[in-house]
Amino acid sequence: DPIPGRPEVCAVLEAILFAAGCPVSYDKIAEALEITPAKAKEVAEAAALRYDDRGIELLVAGHHGAATSTS
Questions:
Q1: For an engineered disulfide with 66, which of 8, 44, 55, 56 has Cβ 3.0 to 4.6 Å away?
Q2: pTM of the prediction?
């Protein structure tokens, strides 16, 4: 888990990104998950690795945010 003791963060991140349908800033992700924007970026990067072979691409956009893509 990207955040020890909080196994739900990847599922919540995924729900946020799919519901939004567009890139979401790390600030907004952090607010929803009650973590820092830097930690939100770490969670997004960890989730991207988990989704790598599942037909879901998590696009981590530098300092700006993340989005999903099915390719």
A1: 44
A2: 0.74
